[in-house]
Specification:
The chain is an alpha/beta fold and 354 residues long. Helices cover 42% and strands 13% of the residues. The strands form two sheets. The protein has a seven-stranded parallel beta sheet. The chain has a two-stranded antiparallel ribbon with strand order 8-9. Helix 9 packs parallel to helix 10.
Length: 354
């Protein structure tokens, strides 16, 4: 927490919402208390925490926290569901998903989900492994995107939106990565449903074409997508469909990401220190196919997440940024202990002045 808080501060981020897929997982009141205590001495960044629910007992723990512990509730940014396995293996028991939607509606708890279909992902992997030897599949990390196809995200988002329609639960799609996903959220918004979504810098700035240079450093969930999907995310920002840009910061070490076979490497990339300069570079007009404004950055990275997750951060807070400063991203100059970045060597503009 201490090193990542420094990394966030250096990246111009004053408040972070940490996910529950940690060791141990944050699925009980005791685990939540432990995290709050660990964060108490950290001053570089305001750390909030999502609560995880994978089984019925965790839902009871969530109710206890929300109803009986106001001091903990103030530090809880909501519930994070994993509709399929991702890093940390916190896939929710499908039998309680609807009950979670009902509970979050009744108690006013922000609900966010990692949206992928376990059935489609399993089918896609089975199909690929039927075409080639496991040793061949496991050595080619680019196949990760085929094992977790765009249809998986779309199916899962559609499932969640159906529950929103049924129960009226405000719902947020985490790290949306596909054109299909953008289309589903657009339709939900047009239908007046309380659905919001976020996209992540790695999906905005990287695509499946980057596997050849990144290798396992480009492995994440949801995975890298096509250029067409990437363009749809930027269009979603332009059209006001995207509500937030969030890092999905996952600082696995270089040793972990260098696992053999490559497909066994953990999914996730660091991003908390590089998000703002990447977005400011896009705002500068340097990359013609990636368009965003300073006002949109303010809205997507502060105003909307502050509102959606009831963070209570003051709009009076400011971050001093030299938007004309040009610099090159090097992991050796960043502050995360993971010691790498998928944006190594990228020239960007905009430097946080501390």
């Amino acid at each position: 927490m201490a090193s990542e808080a420094i990394s966030a501060k250096e990246g111009g981020i004053a408040c972070v919402c940490e996910m529950p897929n940690t060791n141990p997982p944050c699925t009980t009141v005791d685990a939540f208390v432990d995290k709050v205590k660990r964060a108490a001495g950290i001053s570089d960044c305001d750390i909030r925490f999502f609560f995880g629910v994978t089984e019925a007992e965790h839902l009871e723990e969530l109710k206890d926290l929300w109803v009986n512990h106001p001091e903990l509730k103030a530090r809880c940014s909501g519930v994070k569901l994993y509709l399929d396995h991702s890093t940390g293996n916190q896939k929710v028991d499908g039998g309680i998903v609807e009950e979670i939607f009902i509970t979050c509606k009744e108690l006013g708890i922000p609900l966010i989900a990692h949206c992928e279909s376990p059935e489609i992902n399993e089918s896609a992997e089975t199909f690929l492994r039927g075409k080639a030897e496991d040793s061949v599949i496991d050595s080619d990390v680019s196949l990760h995107s085929l094992m977790r196809p765009a249809a998986s995200e779309a199916e899962s988002i559609a499932y969640a939106i159906n529950l929103v329609q049924k129960h009226g639960t405000p719902f947020h799609v985490a790290h949306l990565s596909t054109a299909q996903g953008i289309g589903l959220v657009k339709t939900a918004k047009e239908d007046g449903l309380p659905v919001t979504c976020e996209v992540s810098p790695h999906h905005l700035f990287l695509s499946i074409e980057d596997y050849k240079t990144l290798g396992t450093l480009g492995k994440m969930n949801p995975p890298l997508r096509s250029k067409q999907d990437q363009q749809a995310l930027w269009k979603g920002i332009e059209d006001g469909i995207v509500d937030c840009i969030a890092t999905d910061h996952a600082p696995h070490t270089l040793k972990e990401k260098s696992a053999e076979p490559p497909m066994s490497a953990p999914s996730g990339v660091p991003g908390v220190e590089t998000m703002l300069p990447l977005l400011l570079t896009a705002a500068s007009g340097k990359w013609e196919d990636k368009k965003i404004t300073i006002d949109q950055i303010q809205k997507l990275c502060f105003e909307n997440p502050n509102r959606i997750f009831n963070l209570g951060r003051s709009a009076e807070e400011t971050i001093d940024v030299d938007i004309d400063a040009t610099w090159t991203i090097h992991a050796s100059k960043l502050h995360s202990q993971c010691d790498w970045t998928p944006f190594e060597g990228w020239e960007v503009v905009g430097k946080v002045m501390l």
